[in-house]
Amino acid sequence: MSQNIQQNDSSLYGKQIILGITGGIAAYKSADLLRRLIKAGATVQVVMTKGAQAFLTPLTFQALSGLAVRTDLLDTESEAAMGHIELAKWADLVLIAPCSADFMAKLANGLADDLLSTLCLATDAPVAIAPAMNQQMYKTAVTQQNLLRLNQQQRLIWGPASGVQACGDQGPGRMEEPEILFARVAHQFKLTNTLQGINVLLTAGPTQEAIDPVRYIGNRSSGKMGYALAEALQEAGANVCLISGPVNLPSPVADCVKVQTADEMYQQVFARIAEQDIFIGCAAVADYKVKEIATQKIKKNDKQLALTLIKNPDIISEVATFENRPTLVVGFAAETENLLDNASAKLLRKNLDLICANDVGSLTTGFASDQNKILLLMRSSEEHIESEQLPLASKKELSKQIVNIIAQRYNQKKSK
Ligand code: C5P
């Protein structure tokens, strides 16, 4: 699926869409719309009403989406796989195309007597409708009142178009063409994905803790993930400040401050933290530093050399508990075992909103690799954690997906 994705339009990649199909001849156009959404990297769950099935069979949409079409509210088999409330929560967008006059009336009045109308009530994702009906049915007063109510209820109304209708009439009521609806979907995600004008502070790379003037304690962080993130954040419109430990990479952003130690990183972060909307701790900060750094190079006279190490400040924990805390604090967890347990514990312990966990024990996803596989854990309430697995991809591609999710979470949190 991912081979078909246009590299410059990632707004639909990984998005989860419910495509609701109601009774109308325009349903045949929804097959084309579905194909476009899938090609752009979205996962689409098709839900058909009874009326829709009179025009097309679920099999058509199943073949295109790769997922069994849902048709019934209380179907035990599909409910066991994913309950309707779970499905409603799963969605990033619900698009009803075509949306019949009957379904508009249902939606406007909050009825929930079938799967699709129930999903519309149970979701907190945007619900968009693409009306399709005979021009007279569209113009009639009650339909217009329903439209007004739907508009007041913040439902997105896409179309209808005007022209010759399947029944031979002429006027408004044709469903928007699939390419127009597709563009609307992409635009909708771009709106929620955007970080235009948002201040983001990002740490990246390792830190180096001096032992003496020539030696240091370091780690294997290459900075690749953090630098790719800085680039993706900038592309999403954010004002990015990158605080970076020593790495061999050109900075993708103009505002880049180079530091060496955890203490320096801490100072640079806290000099700027008050103006930040989002903080992302991608740096592999050394947990300990040498208590007394030798002023001269240590000679190798003795068989043993004991260094006393003391704890470095935990930068991200302090950012997350700072009184003027950024809206979103995002951490990374590089683990070699028990990824899920360790990362969830870290998310809670450090008071983060989101954590990107990766297995650094593996050669394909480790520090120096250009690829990575990330398990995202997000705090949706005090104790509830949601997870999302981002499959193996280049660090650049993964960064775009992470930035999309960060943008969504940020915009959601801001709008609450
Ligand atoms: O505890 P651990 O080092 O595994 O946590 C990783 C996360 O905490 C990363 O987001 C890292 O940038 C951040 N961190 C920090 N300051 C430290 C240690 C880790 O900001 N001293």
Task: Sum this structure up briefly.
36% of the residues lie in helices and 23% in strands.
Tell me the CATH topology of the largest domain.
Rossmann fold
Give the amount of beta strand, in percent. 15-25%
End-to-end CA span: 35 Å
Number of domains: 2
CATH architecture of the largest domain: 3-Layer(aba) Sandwich
Computed CA radius of gyration, to the nearest angstrom: 26 Å
What's the overall average pLDDT, rounded? 92
Query: What's the assembly state of these chains?
Result: single chain
* Helix content, binned percent: 25-40%
Instruction: Output the structural class.
Output: alpha/beta
CATH superfamily of the largest domain: CoaB-like
Treating each run of at least 4 consecutive H or I residues as one helix, how many helices?
A: 15
User: How do the strands line up in the largest sheet?
Assistant: 12-11-8-13-16-17-18-19
Residue ranges: pLDDT <50 for 5 or more in a row? 1-9
User: Which small compounds were modeled alongside the protein?
Assistant: cytidine-5'-monophosphate
- Specify the CATH class of the largest domain: Alpha Beta
